[in-house]
């Protein structure tokens, strides 16, 4: 973000007593990590661990980003107008205040909420209020040590690389450390219009289809996040009166004491909800900024976690069978989403578009199709992100929770579960067993070395599975799908090897067409791929 500053001691001038103590406790190696590295734009904005220096999230680096965004706005918009939100993390409110100071003092109109906001409320409101930019101080589902800044354009879509590069150039001009002297100009600060909350609530409730007797028993957790003031209220308004909430996760707790990794993709965050769910039919979870959705449902009497693909498959099938079909119905998924979606599209004769991972790609495709007057069914990616309304361009876990409770209620009235429903879907359209895993490395260089080694000598087998086709997304696909990952096919089955762009981790997405041994074979393929990777380190 800024030029490397090797005279670390000059930061002492702007440090408070606590920061100075922390600074003097750092080893030389830790000082290099803190002051010679820079935060960069990643898949969803800027994100990093809290700490000192240019390599971490702190008041100085947030100020630097705020000035960069301000410069971008005043150079590209005649009368710039933005909206700012923040989540429940430790310093999120403080960072929001920095944005308000920097932007309003430069005559940028700033809309802000009096309290924390779900990310989807901000991404919805940018488009609804016809603003130029949306800024959310959030680190989504990351552990407590993280915070970040998410930026969306006037259509509510995560900014593309072109805009991110423009902002990054402005950020680079801001030298650190510096005194933050800007004062809030109240003439340019506006509260969220009440109509925004009403319109957001209407969008969520319009995601429902059936208005039936409500018999579902629900356990809900916001994982100490922003969803607590939204999801339960909307569910109660819909008639779901039996909702249990673990008290310890209903409170605002930026330390996430009950779950070290508040990501509803994984089982750990559900511990507190499971303790009170004896009478519940379903457990619903939002991550701390409420843009993701996680679901546990009964299978043979016991709770089991649905993966992100399964939830997306249920949403899509339900809409295509229960909602009136519209002209130009289409689905958006990603290249690593379950191939079941292709089977679904073929069965129902709807268009399907696949993008690269990330909602800046998904949102752009939704926008493109809306301009052609086509009708969105569902847009989603396997990491628990869903768009169920054409009024959104980014994922929303609140509308997802609302719709999934309706579906589970619809099934309970027929004495069925969500897992029974999945079996029916697979019987109708076909399906795949989908597994995901990852392996961590000591550095990005080590990770890149492994991918380079794979490309130099492509394997002919993974374990006992003979590879029938290789697709290298860095060169074998059309431009909009170009990326740094490789797909290995074994007939109808596949595994995709994808290095992360923000951390030293390679992810694996394995899809095996359903059969007697498909899940066993998929599990074995994951393990064999890990062994292959380990041999190349």
Q: Give the helix level as a range of percent.
A: 25-40%
Distance between the termini: 30 Å
User: How would you sum up the major sheet?
Assistant: 7 strands, mixed
Beta-strand percentage? 15-25%
Helix-strand makeup class: alpha/beta
Whole-number mean pLDDT: 95
Strands side by side in the biggest sheet: 1-2-6-5-3-4-7
CATH top level assignment of the largest domain: Alpha Beta
Under CATH, the homologous superfamily of the largest domain reads Alpha-D-Glucose-1,6-Bisphosphate, subunit A, domain 3
Output the number of helix runs.
17
Low-confidence stretches: 1-5
Instruction: Please tally the β strands and state the result.
Output: 23
Report the CATH topology name of the largest domain: Alpha-D-Glucose-1,6-Bisphosphate, Chain A, domain 3
Shape: globular
CATH architect. name of the largest domain: 3-Layer(aba) Sandwich
